[in-house]
Each structure stands twice: as C-alpha cells, then as structure tokens.
Design brief:
The chain has about 230 residues and is mainly alpha-helical. The chain has one domain. About 70% of the residues lie in helices and about 0% in strands. Helix 2 packs antiparallel against helix 5, helix 4 runs antiparallel to helix 5 and helix 4 packs parallel to helix 7. It is globular, with a radius of gyration of 21 Å.
C-alpha cells in the first residue's frame, strides 16, 4: 500500500527559499571576507566610535540583504500543499525572509567583533543590538512593501535602523564602558535610553507586518489543485 504525497508545484517553498539564499549569499561572503581586515583597527579602551561604526555597518548590511530578498515575498510559498492556508504559507514565507538577513547579520557580527578585539561583554552587546535591529527592520520592510511598495519599505527600514542605532550610541555616550572596555550594564539607563526604542520598533514592525499580511491575503481564495490530464 503506497502513501500518496501532497503534490508540489514548481514554485513551492524549496525553490523560493533557495532563491532568497542565493540573493543573500554574496553579501554574507563579502561581510566575512572584510571582517579580518578589522584586525588592522587599533584597540581603544573607549571604543565608542569603533562600536557604533561597526553597528551602523552591520545594520546597513542587514538592510541591503532585506532589500535584496524582499521581492521573493511576492512569490508562492508551499503553493502545491492544498492543506495549507494562503495566510499560513504567506506567514511562513515572511518568517523565512526575516530569518535570512538576521542570521547573516549575526554571523558577520561575530566575525567582525572578534576581529576588533572587543571584550566578550561588548561583543555580546553588539550581537544583541545587531540582531534586534536586523529582524525588526526586515519585518517592517516586508510589511511596508506589501502596503506601500519598495521605496516606502526602504525608507521605513532606514528610519527604524537609524533610531535604534542612535539609542545605543546615546546609552554608551552617557554610561560609558567598563575599565576593560567592556559593556557597562546600567539597568536604569537601559530602561530609559534603549528599551523604549527597541519595544516601539518591535511593535511597529509586527503591526505593520500583520497589516501587510492582511492586505496581501484579503479576498484571496484558497488555491485549488487542477486535475492532471489523463493519458
């Protein structure tokens, strides 16, 4: 007794995931190749400039990756699986397209922070900051793209990214660094200077993504499987 597998169309998930990865891969290679050159940057016990310059570059990399892969969100995801709703397939596609730039930024952050010889605590702060901005910007760009188009998506992503980078810069400017140049944790200042921006950015990204999802799937009928011609 054989088990019939769900039919899959040529535009099903593996194809679009591969397309997104192919678009993102050159930027990952570029980031990893450039990272060792940061060994030439002299270490400073007050690395504010180097830290913010690195964070801004990482954020720009994340925006570039999101911009490159965002058009893939228009393609069909799991279109051949009749048991999946259009909303579910679209959500899955958006999640994948958020994970790709976020993961890429994380890998480049690890490599570049090590090359800059940041103390472990400062590397951890950089990783948290870069990942937090990357996923929120990616989610926002996808949602705005579905609502307003490409240019508005890029403008929204840049605006969110700049606001978050400035909040991190302001925290480090006010609090400073530990004696070894590491992350000096001040919970009160974090609550005042950083977390409000992060919370608003996350909420805006999720709300806009959901609104874009609603617009994209509104009124769309479930795809139906057409019978194959009998020989």
């Amino acid at each position: 007794m054989s088990v019939t597998q769900p039919p899959r169309s040529p535009a099903s998930a593996p194809g679009v995931i591969e397309a997104a990865l192919v678009l993102a891969f050159p930027l990952l290679v570029a980031g990893l190749v450039v990272s060792p050159l940061l060994l030439l940057v002299p270490w400073s016990a007050e690395p504010l400039g180097a830290f913010i310059a690195q964070l801004a570059t990482l954020v720009a990399l994340g925006l570039a990756v999101s911009w490159r892969v965002a058009p893939v969100s228009d393609r069909a995801w799991f279109s051949g699986y009749v048991g999946w709703s259009l909303r579910g397939r679209t959500i899955f596609g958006a999640v994948v397209l958020i994970v790709i730039p976020t993961g890429l930024v994380g890998l480049v952050t690890l490599a570049s922070s090590a090359a800059l010889r940041f103390p472990p605590s400062l590397q951890y702060l950089q990783l948290l900051s870069a990942l937090d901005i990357a996923w929120a910007a990616a989610a926002l760009m996808i949602g705005v793209r579905w609502l307003r188009g490409d240019r508005a998506a890029l403008a929204a992503g840049v605006t969110l990214a700049v606001a978050c980078v400035v909040s991190v810069w302001n925290y480090l400017r006010v609090v400073g660094f530990a004696p070894d140049g590491g992350w000096l944790v001040d919970g009160t200042r974090l609550m005042q200077l950083v977390l409000p921006f992060d919370t608003v950015a996350a909420l805006v990204a999720v709300i806009v993504l959901l609104r874009g999802l609603s617009k994209r799937t509104r009124g769309a009928a479930q795809p139906t499987e057409q019978a194959r011609p009998q020989s």
